[in-house]
Design brief:
The chain is α+β, with helices and mostly antiparallel strands. The protein has one domain: DD-peptidase/beta-lactamase superfamily (Beta-lactamase, 3-Layer(aba) Sandwich), CATH 3.40.710.10. 40% of the residues lie in helices and 18% in strands. The strands form three sheets. It has a five-stranded antiparallel sheet with strand order 2-1-10-9-8, sandwiched between helices. A three-stranded antiparallel sheet has the order 3-7-6. It is globular. This is Class A beta-lactamase-related serine hydrolase.
Length: 301
């Protein structure tokens, strides 16, 4: 590392600490999470985060929340919004059966690729995306509704720094979008807070998307701190209720969600972009995200 690079990293670390929104109440002290994020920034991790009080909209903390970051599968939420909006116009469309074929084939996340059924209803495909971020279901639904329709819906929502850029691919070539999706923590917290309040398209559409997202089984990042059952947390557990979506790719860990507790509710987004060259780097990122989660849990509980 050159002296100038070291200075830049120290400055970035200082910016993370200065970016803290803190009140005089000890229960609203997010210093544990900010210390963890600061250490990651010092180590060269690009960090972006934001949390807001769901009831008042007050910013609880923010770190470079305007920065556009790669968010991997989080952009699939925009697909779910478009699908939910279509189902609201025609309930019978939920039972429309879609076939998978060779052009949709993709590996990694999801279980449909491991199932025998070659066809599933639209509503079931959306549930698979909510539950396991199913890549095959994503590609089949994207082929049905069209990426342009998702982009138009995204623009109609007023999102300018958040987008689903492409279908899911096992390998990205020079002619493909470099990332599956991008987003800013500021826009993502707004999107999830608005979903929780029933303000995305309509209460019916928002409720349907929330229902799919509460199926999510990935609690490996920020939500690792909440002590919930990854396979069953649709009802309050010790007065804690979660809706979330995660994104995982090489060098990318991102989570956005809404956490409700007996004392308060928060919308949050944390994204990390890092050199995934060794396991210790990945574990440090995940631990940093969990530290933020511990602060959030203390705030709501």
């Amino acid at each position: 590392m050159t002296p100038s690079q070291g200075s830049e990293r120290r400055a970035r670390h200082a910016d993370v600490r200065r970016g803290k929104h803190r009140t005089d109440e000890a229960s609203e002290d997010f210093s544990r999470g900010f210390d963890a994020l600061g250490e990651l920034a010092l180590a060269g991790v690009q960090v972006s985060a934001r949390a807001t009080d769901l009831a008042t909209g007050r910013v609880l903390f923010s770190v470079d929340d305007h920065v556009v970051m790669p968010t991997a599968s989080i952009g699939k939420v925009l697909l779910l919004v478009e699908v939910a909006a279509r189902l609201a116009e025609s309930e019978t469309e939920a039972l429309t059966v879609l076939d998978r074929d060779a052009r949709d084939a993709v590996g990694d996340a999801g279980i449909w690729q491991h199932l025998q059924s070659p066809s599933l209803p639209i509503a079931d495909l959306a549930a698979l995306i909510g539950a396991t971020s199913d890549n095959l279901a994503t590609n089949v639904l994207l082929r049905y509704v069209g990426l342009e329709a998702v982009r138009a819906r995204t623009e109609a929502l007023g999102l300018t720094r958040t987008a689903l850029l492409d279908l899911v691919r096992d390998h990205r070539g020079p002619d493909d979008a470099p990332q599956l999706s991008i987003g800013s923590a500021k826009e993502l917290t707004w999107l999830f807070a608005s979903l929780a309040r029933g303000e995305i398209v309509s209460p019916e559409v928002s409720q349907r998307v929330v229902g799919w997202l509460t199926l999510n089984t990935d609690l490996s990042m920020v939500s690792a701190a909440f002590g919930l059952d990854p396979l069953a947390h649709r009802r309050p557990d010790h007065s804690v209720l979660l809706m979330n979506k995660t994104g995982t790719d090489g060098g990318v860990r991102s989570e956005v969600g809404v956490l409700r507790g007996p004392r308060a509710s928060v919308a949050f987004a944390v994204s990390m972009y890092y050199a995934d060259t060794q396991l210790s780097s990945r574990l440090a990122v995940l631990d940093g995200m969990r530290q933020v989660g511990l602060d959030l849990l203390e705030f709501v509980h």
